[in-house]
Amino acid sequence: MKFEKKSLKFLEKYLNTSSPTGYEHKGQEVWMDYIRPYVDKIEVDHYGTCYGIINPEAEFKVVIEAHADEISWYVNYITDEGLIYVIRNGGSDQTIAPSKVVHIHGENGIVKGVFGWPAIHTRTNQNEPTPKIENIFIDCGATSKKEVEDMGIFVGCMITYPDEFFEMNDRYFVCRALDNRIGGFMIAEVARLLKENKKSIPFGLYITNSVQEEVGLYGADMIADTIKPNIAIVTDVTHDTTTPMIEKKKEGDQKCGAGPVVFFAPSVHHTIRELIIDTAKAKKIPFQRAAASRATGTDTDAFAHSNGGVPSALISLPLRYMHTTVEMVAKEDVANVIKLIYETVLKIKPEMKLKYH
Which of 16, 268, 294, 331 has the fewest CB atoms inside 10 Å of its own CB, making it the most exposed? Predict the structure, then answer.
């Protein structure tokens, strides 16, 4: 699967730029620089959600949305010996932390550290420790709390993983934070295609990259009230359930390489979902189906439940190893999500009947 060089260059730079929840601004700057030629206007709200607008004067508004933030850690406690204990910022997985290199975003710039762990020789089967929030710790080479603070590290500093983007076997993109900056990439590509293909749309299109999804859908909740859209199409990642130790009876049956995943859930509007499925069939775009009880757990819920109810739908990208530093997505699926959102946008009409049925 081939992508344009400028698109891949943007994707690599965007993924390699840290964008932890609450500190998304550097990643958002990269994203805005890329979409600027493809939209008529760019706005940023008070908490950092960015959106590019095509036809900003139009009354009928359609949102295509992804979220920009990545999971991370906060410095929570510094011992007298200079070791750092952490708390989560989002759904960070303590089991993958031991032996990982980290970037501590201190007041004097980035400081490298490592999540330490006792050597296997010192552990016994009778007392085998497991990584927990209470026992994982970061060593930044200091021997005292004062030395840590002299480095510019204090309680509240953000901690991210530095693992960078690469392609594997010409089939997968691999990186931390594909959840969900790959979504920001895909909606940006929709904007690019609309501009380069000189497509005219009869409504305002709001290409929206929201903050703070990983801690409660807060960015989407705020921006939905600001934009007040008539329709929202959200893209996020979902689990590839073909990998080991995942129960399909619980998590469903989705896999990388089989196409975008269209969700069925209470917050997903029938008319918008059917438009997406009809578009996929008409354009011969492969797709999968998944169901979510109660809530999707994505920004779809925030948009759907805003402003008295906004017709919303969710197109997900299958992903392996979520919330690790080696998240994987199939390049073919990325291309097909872009195509499905693009083709669906071209079918939307302001006069559409949006009554729930």
Answer: 294
The CATH fold of domain 72-160: Elongation Factor Tu (Ef-tu); domain 3 (2.40.30)
Q: pLDDT, tens digit, for every residue of 99-146? A: 999 999 999 999 999 999 999 888 877 678 899 999 999 999 999 999
pLDDT score of 125? 72
Give ranges for CATH 3.40.630.10 in the chain.
5-70+176-347
Global pTM reads: 0.97
pLDDT, mean of residues 155-175: 98
Q: Which residues are annotated as a binding site?
A: 67, 179, 214, 236, 323
CATH number belonging to domain 5-70+176-347: 3.40.630.10
Q: Residues annotated as binding site for Zn(2+)?
A: 67, 179, 214, 236, 323
Give span(s): CATH 2.40.30.40, the chain: 72-160
HEC secondary structure over the chain: CCCCHHHHHHHHHHHHCCCECCCCHHHHHHHHHHHHHHCCEEEECCCCCEEEEECCCCCCEEEEEEECCECEEEEEEECCCCEEEEEEECCCCHHHCCCCEEEEEECCEEEEEEEECCCHHHCCHHHCCCCCCCCCEEECCCCCHHHHHHCCCCCCCEEECCCCCEEECCCEEEECCHHHHHHHHHHHHHHHHHHHCCCCCCCEEEEEEECCHHHCCHHHHHHHHHHCCCEEEEEEEEECCCCCCCCHHHHCCCCCCCCCEEEECCCCCHHHHHHHHHHHHHCCCCCEEEECCCCCCCHHHHHHCCCCCCCEEEEEEEEECCCCCCEEEEHHHHHHHHHHHHHHHHHCCCCCCCCCC
Rounded CA separation 203/200 (Å): 9
